[in-house]
Inverse folding.
Protein backbone atom coordinates (compact mmCIF):
# COMPACT_ATOMS: atom_id res chain seq x y z
CA UNK A 1 0.00 0.00 0.00
CA UNK A 2 1.30 3.46 -0.94
CA UNK A 3 0.93 5.98 1.86
CA UNK A 4 0.46 9.74 1.64
CA UNK A 5 2.51 12.14 3.77
CA UNK A 6 0.93 15.24 5.33
CA UNK A 7 2.95 18.31 6.34
CA UNK A 8 1.68 19.55 9.70
CA UNK A 9 3.05 23.04 9.12
CA UNK A 10 1.64 23.95 5.67
CA UNK A 11 -1.00 21.24 5.25
CA UNK A 12 0.41 20.04 1.91
CA UNK A 13 0.33 16.34 1.15
CA UNK A 14 2.34 14.13 -1.18
CA UNK A 15 2.78 10.48 -2.00
CA UNK A 16 5.37 8.51 -0.06
CA UNK A 17 8.53 8.23 -2.23
CA UNK A 18 9.26 4.63 -3.15
CA UNK A 19 12.62 4.17 -4.86
CA UNK A 20 11.79 0.93 -6.65
CA UNK A 21 8.72 2.40 -8.40
CA UNK A 22 9.10 3.44 -12.01
CA UNK A 23 7.91 6.96 -11.21
CA UNK A 24 5.64 9.03 -8.99
CA UNK A 25 2.01 7.96 -8.93
CA UNK A 26 2.83 4.77 -10.86
CA UNK A 27 1.68 1.44 -9.52
CA UNK A 28 4.42 -0.75 -11.01
CA UNK A 29 8.11 -1.24 -10.27
CA UNK A 30 11.16 -0.41 -12.38
CA UNK A 31 11.86 -4.12 -12.86
CA UNK A 32 8.36 -4.68 -14.22
CA UNK A 33 8.97 -1.82 -16.68
CA UNK A 34 12.25 -3.46 -17.79
CA UNK A 35 10.40 -6.76 -18.20
CA UNK A 36 7.68 -5.16 -20.31
CA UNK A 37 10.26 -3.46 -22.55
CA UNK A 38 12.09 -6.76 -23.04
CA UNK A 39 8.84 -8.50 -24.02
CA UNK A 40 7.89 -5.70 -26.41
CA UNK A 41 10.86 -6.58 -28.63
CA UNK A 42 9.11 -9.82 -29.52
CA UNK A 43 5.42 -9.26 -28.72
CA UNK A 44 2.59 -6.84 -29.44
CA UNK A 45 1.25 -4.44 -26.79
CA UNK A 46 -1.91 -6.54 -26.46
CA UNK A 47 0.07 -9.74 -25.99
CA UNK A 48 2.29 -8.16 -23.32
CA UNK A 49 -0.77 -6.77 -21.51
CA UNK A 50 -2.42 -10.22 -21.52
CA UNK A 51 0.75 -11.90 -20.23
CA UNK A 52 1.54 -9.43 -17.45
CA UNK A 53 -2.01 -8.56 -16.45
CA UNK A 54 -1.36 -4.87 -17.06
CA UNK A 55 -3.79 -2.58 -18.84
CA UNK A 56 -3.05 -1.97 -22.53
CA UNK A 57 -2.50 1.74 -21.82
CA UNK A 58 0.01 0.93 -19.07
CA UNK A 59 2.14 -1.13 -21.44
CA UNK A 60 1.97 1.61 -24.05
CA UNK A 61 2.91 4.31 -21.51
CA UNK A 62 5.89 2.30 -20.30
CA UNK A 63 7.23 2.17 -23.84
CA UNK A 64 6.44 5.84 -24.53
CA UNK A 65 8.28 6.91 -21.38
CA UNK A 66 11.31 4.82 -22.35
CA UNK A 67 11.40 6.22 -25.91
CA UNK A 68 11.00 9.81 -24.65
CA UNK A 69 14.04 9.43 -22.42
CA UNK A 70 16.10 7.55 -24.99
CA UNK A 71 15.55 10.11 -27.76
CA UNK A 72 15.39 13.23 -25.61
CA UNK A 73 18.76 14.25 -27.00
CA UNK A 74 19.87 13.15 -30.46
CA UNK A 75 23.52 13.51 -31.45
CA UNK A 76 23.99 15.53 -34.65
CA UNK A 77 27.79 15.43 -34.64
CA UNK A 78 28.07 13.28 -37.77
CA UNK A 79 25.19 14.84 -39.71
CA UNK A 80 26.28 16.14 -43.13
CA UNK A 81 22.93 17.09 -44.65
CA UNK A 82 19.54 17.76 -43.14
CA UNK A 83 16.68 17.25 -45.58
CA UNK A 84 13.34 19.01 -45.34
CA UNK A 85 10.66 17.36 -47.43
CA UNK A 86 10.06 20.35 -49.69
CA UNK A 87 8.90 18.00 -52.48
CA UNK A 88 6.11 16.70 -50.30
CA UNK A 89 5.22 20.17 -49.00
CA UNK A 90 5.13 21.64 -52.50
CA UNK A 91 2.98 18.97 -54.17
CA UNK A 92 0.70 18.62 -51.15
CA UNK A 93 0.18 22.37 -51.11
CA UNK A 94 -0.64 22.35 -54.82
CA UNK A 95 -3.30 19.70 -54.21
CA UNK A 96 -4.79 21.77 -51.39
CA UNK A 97 -4.94 24.81 -53.67
CA UNK A 98 -6.53 22.69 -56.40
CA UNK A 99 -9.18 21.43 -54.01
CA UNK A 100 -9.90 24.97 -52.85
CA UNK A 101 -10.38 26.04 -56.47
CA UNK A 102 -12.75 23.11 -57.06
CA UNK A 103 -14.90 24.13 -54.09
CA UNK A 104 -14.99 27.80 -55.08
CA UNK A 105 -15.90 26.79 -58.64
CA UNK A 106 -18.77 24.63 -57.40
CA UNK A 107 -20.10 27.49 -55.27
CA UNK A 108 -20.49 29.63 -58.39
CA UNK A 109 -22.40 27.00 -60.37
CA UNK A 110 -26.10 26.34 -60.65
CA UNK A 111 -27.37 23.20 -58.90
CA UNK A 112 -27.59 21.27 -62.16
CA UNK A 113 -23.98 22.09 -63.09
CA UNK A 114 -22.69 21.22 -59.62
CA UNK A 115 -23.53 17.58 -60.30
CA UNK A 116 -20.78 17.47 -62.92
CA UNK A 117 -18.13 18.30 -60.31
CA UNK A 118 -19.64 16.42 -57.40
CA UNK A 119 -17.54 13.40 -56.45
CA UNK A 120 -14.68 14.44 -58.79
CA UNK A 121 -12.25 15.56 -56.07
CA UNK A 122 -9.87 12.62 -56.30
CA UNK A 123 -10.09 12.61 -60.08
CA UNK A 124 -8.57 16.09 -60.08
CA UNK A 125 -6.00 15.39 -57.34
CA UNK A 126 -4.80 11.93 -58.35
CA UNK A 127 -1.56 11.58 -60.32
CA UNK A 128 -2.35 11.41 -64.02
CA UNK A 129 -0.40 8.20 -64.62
CA UNK A 130 -2.47 6.47 -61.94
CA UNK A 131 -5.76 7.05 -63.77
CA UNK A 132 -7.53 4.39 -65.78
CA UNK A 133 -8.27 5.10 -69.43
CA UNK A 134 -11.89 5.88 -68.54
CA UNK A 135 -10.89 8.21 -65.70
CA UNK A 136 -8.32 9.96 -67.90
CA UNK A 137 -11.02 10.63 -70.50
CA UNK A 138 -13.33 11.98 -67.80
CA UNK A 139 -10.56 14.29 -66.54
CA UNK A 140 -10.00 15.55 -70.08
CA UNK A 141 -13.69 16.41 -70.31
CA UNK A 142 -13.62 18.27 -66.97
CA UNK A 143 -10.57 20.25 -68.03
CA UNK A 144 -12.39 21.35 -71.18
CA UNK A 145 -15.67 22.28 -69.45
CA UNK A 146 -14.13 24.12 -66.48
CA UNK A 147 -11.31 26.30 -67.81
CA UNK A 148 -9.71 27.42 -64.54
CA UNK A 149 -9.81 23.91 -63.06
CA UNK A 150 -8.38 22.53 -66.29
CA UNK A 151 -5.49 25.00 -66.27
CA UNK A 152 -4.75 24.33 -62.59
CA UNK A 153 -4.90 20.56 -63.16
CA UNK A 154 -2.41 20.71 -66.02
CA UNK A 155 -0.13 23.05 -64.06
CA UNK A 156 -0.15 20.54 -61.20
CA UNK A 157 1.08 17.83 -63.56
CA UNK A 158 3.65 20.23 -65.02
CA UNK A 159 4.97 20.84 -61.50
CA UNK A 160 5.23 17.11 -60.79
CA UNK A 161 7.02 16.47 -64.07
CA UNK A 162 9.83 18.84 -63.15
CA UNK A 163 11.05 16.19 -60.69
CA UNK A 164 10.85 13.49 -63.34
CA UNK A 165 12.51 15.33 -66.21
CA UNK A 166 15.00 17.87 -64.83
CA UNK A 167 18.48 16.30 -64.82
CA UNK A 168 20.39 19.01 -62.94
CA UNK A 169 19.94 21.93 -60.59
CA UNK A 170 20.08 24.59 -63.28
CA UNK A 171 17.47 22.86 -65.44
CA UNK A 172 15.19 22.52 -62.43
CA UNK A 173 15.63 26.17 -61.51
CA UNK A 174 14.72 27.21 -65.05
CA UNK A 175 11.68 24.91 -65.04
CA UNK A 176 10.44 26.23 -61.70
CA UNK A 177 10.93 29.81 -62.87
CA UNK A 178 8.96 29.15 -66.07
CA UNK A 179 6.23 27.45 -64.04
CA UNK A 180 5.95 30.47 -61.76
CA UNK A 181 5.80 32.85 -64.72
CA UNK A 182 2.99 30.83 -66.35
CA UNK A 183 1.14 30.64 -63.02
CA UNK A 184 1.40 34.38 -62.47
CA UNK A 185 0.05 35.33 -65.91
CA UNK A 186 -2.77 32.76 -65.67
CA UNK A 187 -4.76 35.11 -63.47
CA UNK A 188 -5.83 32.15 -61.30
CA UNK A 189 -5.47 33.07 -57.65
CA UNK A 190 -4.42 29.65 -56.33
CA UNK A 191 -1.70 29.33 -58.98
CA UNK A 192 -0.38 32.80 -58.20
CA UNK A 193 -0.22 31.84 -54.51
CA UNK A 194 1.62 28.65 -55.40
CA UNK A 195 4.11 30.59 -57.53
CA UNK A 196 4.80 32.89 -54.59
CA UNK A 197 5.47 29.89 -52.34
CA UNK A 198 7.79 28.24 -54.87
CA UNK A 199 9.83 31.42 -55.34
CA UNK A 200 10.18 31.67 -51.57
CA UNK A 201 11.27 28.02 -51.17
CA UNK A 202 13.24 27.61 -54.36
CA UNK A 203 16.59 26.85 -52.69
CA UNK A 204 15.03 24.16 -50.54
CA UNK A 205 13.36 22.61 -53.57
CA UNK A 206 16.64 22.61 -55.50
CA UNK A 207 18.34 20.61 -52.73
CA UNK A 208 16.89 17.53 -54.44
CA UNK A 209 19.31 18.11 -57.34
CA UNK A 210 22.14 19.75 -55.40
CA UNK A 211 22.58 16.71 -53.14
CA UNK A 212 22.09 13.82 -55.58
CA UNK A 213 18.38 13.25 -55.19
CA UNK A 214 18.21 13.93 -51.46
CA UNK A 215 14.69 13.13 -50.29
CA UNK A 216 12.93 12.13 -47.11
CA UNK A 217 11.51 8.98 -48.70
CA UNK A 218 13.00 6.60 -46.11
CA UNK A 219 11.91 8.84 -43.23
CA UNK A 220 8.42 9.14 -44.69
CA UNK A 221 8.22 5.35 -44.98
CA UNK A 222 9.35 4.94 -41.39
CA UNK A 223 6.84 7.56 -40.21
CA UNK A 224 4.07 5.73 -42.07
CA UNK A 225 5.00 2.53 -40.23
CA UNK A 226 4.88 4.36 -36.89
CA UNK A 227 1.44 5.73 -37.79
CA UNK A 228 0.23 2.28 -38.76
CA UNK A 229 1.52 0.77 -35.50
CA UNK A 230 -0.05 3.58 -33.48
CA UNK A 231 -3.44 3.00 -35.09
Amino acid sequence: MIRRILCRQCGASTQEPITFCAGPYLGYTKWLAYYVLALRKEMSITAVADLTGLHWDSVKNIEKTYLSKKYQKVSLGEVQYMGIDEVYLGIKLMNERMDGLRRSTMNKLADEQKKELKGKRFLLLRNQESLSAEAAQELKKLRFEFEELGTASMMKEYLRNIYKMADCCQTARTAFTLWCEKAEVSGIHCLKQMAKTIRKRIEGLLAFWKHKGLTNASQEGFNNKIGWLTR
